[in-house]
Specification:
The structure holds two protein chains of two kinds. Chain A is mostly beta strands. Chain A has no helices and eleven strands. Classes of the chains: A mainly beta, B mainly beta.
């Protein structure tokens, strides 16, 4: 069974750094792209970027390029989303999802809620 | 970026109704179109990919159609568990943009 399990909720202050994770199981982690999607409170879904864990090839949305870093450690089947300096506007739910064989998002993680507040 | 526009933004329907949601792309995307369902407090669920292919385990009351710039999601007979927000997404070119969502509410 394909599963993506994300790390737990985080409460941070503006300016702090953060790295959240997404661990894949039940499939060949290095053979499928993993994507990250943001959902701000009460809003819709926003595509942030994707990574291919096999070679760490990464694509970012222009809206998020330079704002976050997507990485992966294939040895532990885990993808990451990180910020070097959080802002209050980064408060959101963040989902990871696998891209299937036709590049569609097929399996989703449960989400990680990030709250940034002074 | 390709803009995805869904209509309507919300709708009220009754159990048993046939419901259609439309998604329009700002430029042609072939059939690289997916649909997702999201219930409050839950992660999105994948319903349809390649415009008309059902994701494994998704009931056949959901169907999708379209190609190029215009697409539809149809729910043949709305059930209580189908009240949710639905999103389309293009994956023809980066970034893989989403529509703004259509909230399906109980009449």
């Amino acid at each position: 069974e394909v599963q993506l399990v994300q790390s737990g909720a985080e409460v941070k202050k503006p300016g702090e750094s953060l790295k959240i994770s997404c661990k894949g199981s039940g499939y060949s982690f290095t053979s499928y792209w993993i994507g990250w999607v943001r959902q701000m409170p009460g809003k819709g879904l926003e595509w942030m970027g994707i990574i291919y864990p096999g070679d760490s090839d990464t694509r970012y949305s222009p809206s998020f390029q330079g704002q976050v870093t997507i990485s992966a450690d294939k040895s532990i089947s885990t993808a990451y989303l990180q910020w070097s300096s959080l802002k209050a506007s980064d408060t959101a739910m963040y989902y990871c999802a696998r891209l299937g064989s036709e590049e569609q998002l097929d399996y989703w993680g449960q989400g990680t809620l990030v709250t940034v507040s002074s | 970026d390709i803009q995805m526009t869904q209509s309507p933004s919300s709708l009220s329907a009754s159990v048993g109704d046939r419901v259609t949601i439309t998604c329009r792309a700002s430029q042609g995307i072939s059939n690289y179109l997916a649909w997702f369902q999201q219930k409050p407090g839950k992660a999105p669920k994948s319903l349809i990919y390649a415009a008309s292919s059902l994701q494994s385990g998704v009931p056949s009351k959901f169907s999708g159609s379209g190609s190029g710039t215009d697409f539809t999601l149809t729910i043949s007979s709305l059930q209580p568990e189908d009240f949710a927000t639905y999103y389309c997404q293009q994956y023809n070119s980066y970034p893989h943009t989403f529509g703004q969502g259509t909230k399906v509410e109980i009449k």
